[in-house]
Design brief:
39% of the residues lie in helices and 13% in strands. The protein is of the alpha/beta class. The strands form 4 sheets. An 8-stranded parallel beta barrel has the order 1-2-3-4-5-7-11-12, surrounded by 6 helices. The chain is globular, with a radius of gyration of 21 Å. The two termini are 23 Å apart.
């Protein structure tokens, strides 16, 4: 809408990067930590690329001071990381593990000593296995009380030092892949009714945490991080435009409306009720969701791609399509909801080796949509490019594709800010290379190359700065002006 103003970002803009405990820490059974659902799931043959586990990951548990020193050298303003529930309450919800509390306290202190604002994610998918065994985790309303207790423990422990908090990472992803496509724990497929019930429990747990947050943390901000896929109708055919609206209600607003308004989209709920897969709502649930929505301080956005949407016939594709976890371009297949929508490839956009569309303008479109629909500040909690990186003989890594990807997305963020979106932070995914869940270590996202691989029995885990490390350092030093160079 506006012409491009090639200026700098706001002076208080938080330039950052993000990670998740399971993907970086390793030390999976050290200092009292118990197994999470992911520690068990990755041991099922065929679930991850070449059977990769997070037992060691990139050993951040023992190397966090080295990693944070690299962040400080870069000039990073914020570091988003998650806390492993299994380090805090490893064996039951009755006993706190002091070594777990101390570990994250030290990370927070080292960040602050280096001028880096810590940003904490309470839950990034690694549910304690004992809760899954006791009552099937998110499938039971018992999880609401346990999550609240876990959250309160962290708010009391760290709330005097940490301002920015995220309750859950990508609730829409861990529930869909866990209960509809069997790609994540607990590995169930086609459990549509259970999927929506699990989501309802997660919303209530999020709401309980938000309510407690503002009772405990005097000067903080809290919200959830959502994997947002802005959508485009395939063409102007009314049935495809309607499919886009259905997609938005069932894939985007189903989550964001609850975070921001405390209610579900009406048309989507009517559809789920007609299919007898709507969640069971108990008395007081909507009152809690509404109350919490009025206390949410921002919308967290994890953005990697947009989606094209067209009508899907009754005998059309479902969620059981092939997901590319090998990096062999073109191997993923179309997915959707039969009778509602499907998402074909966008012919106007390039894709990554993992078949994700590269659409910088989609991020700007998404930010404008959040601004006009919810009028909330935005934290871009993840954005980045997974790629095959090569460590050269001189230990350099040349990744111009990553630089271009981030540069073009930052240009669109600056335009969104100029258009009125209140974007307060940008966290790349990720700072170091890490375990990319199902994709193993071959799919690299970091500014820092980590010598870790599925193909070596004893990798060094040494850290090496990529070209993108120096580029992002310059972006931070210039308050973003260097993106126009």
């Amino acid at each position: 809408m506006l012409t491009i103003e090639k200026g700098s970002f706001p002076k208080d803009f938080l330039w950052g990067s993000a990670s998740a405990a399971y993907q970086i820490e390793g030390a999976w059974d050290e200092d009292g930590k118990s197994p999470s659902v992911w520690d068990k799931f990755v041991r099922i043959p065929g679930k991850t690329f070449k059977g990769t586990t997070g037992d060691v990951a990139v050993d951040h548990y023992h190397r966090y001071k080295e990693d944070i020193a690299l962040m400080a050298e870069m000039g990073m303003k914020t570091y988003r990381f998650s806390i492993a529930w299994t380090r805090i309450y490893p064996n039951s919800m009755d006993e706190v593990n002091q070594k777990g509390l101390d570990f994250y306290q030290d990370i927070i202190d080292v960040c602050l000593e280096n001028g880096i604002q810590p940003m904490i994610t309470l839950y990034h998918w690694d549910l304690p296995q004992y809760l899954q065994d006791a009552y099937r985790g998110w499938e039971s309303r018992q999880i609401i009380e346990d999550f609240e207790k876990y959250a309160v423990t962290l708010f009391k422990e760290y709330g005097n030092k940490v301002k920015y908090w995220i309750t859950m990472n990508e609730q829409n992803i861990f529930t869909r892949l866990g209960w509809q496509s069997a790609q994540h724990p607990p590995g169930l497929s086609d459990e549509d009714k259970l999927h929506y019930q699990v989501n309802h429990h997660a919303f209530l747990a999020h709401a309980k945490a938000v309510e407690k947050f503002h009772e405990i943390v005097a000067d903080g901000m809290v919200g959830a991080s959502f994997a947002f896929h802005p959508s485009y109708a395939l063409d102007t055919k009314p049935k495809n435009v309607l499919a886009k609206h259905d997609f938005d209600d069932l894939k985007n607003y189903w989550w964001m409306d609850v975070y921001a308004y405390g209610r579900y989209p009406r048309a989507a709920m009517k559809y789920l009720e007609s299919k007898n897969i709507a969640p069971k709502i108990q008395e007081g649930d909507f009152e809690l969701l509404k109350s919490a929505s009025e206390k949410v301080d921002f919308m967290g956005v994890n953005y990697y791609r947009s989606d094209v949407v067209e009508h899907n016939p009754e005998d059309g594709v479902d969620n059981s399509g092939i997901v590319n976890v090998s990096g062999k371009k073109g191997t993923s297949t179309e997915t959707g909801m039969a009778g509602i929508y499907k998402s074909p490839l966008n012919p106007h956009l390039p894709t990554t080796d993992w078949d994700w569309t590269i659409d910088p303008m989609g991020l700007r479109i998404g930010c404008r949509e959040i601004t006009s629909r919810y009028d909330l500040p935005i934290i871009i909690s993840e954005n980045g490019l997974g790629a095959f990186d090569k460590l050269e003989e001189d230990k350099s890594v040349h990744d111009p594709y990553r630089i271009k990807y981030i540069q073009e997305h930052l240009k669109q963020i600056k335009m969104a800010i100029d258009e009125g979106s209140d974007i307060i932070a940008y966290c790349t995914w990720s700072f170091t290379d890490l375990l990319s869940w199902l994709n193993g270590y071959q799919k690299r996202y970091g500014f820092v190359y980590v010598d870790q691989s599925e193909y070596e029995s004893n990798p060094s885990l040494n850290r090496y700065k990529k070209d993108s490390y120096y580029w992002y350092k310059n972006i931070i030093e210039t308050d973003g002006e260097a993106i126009w160079e």
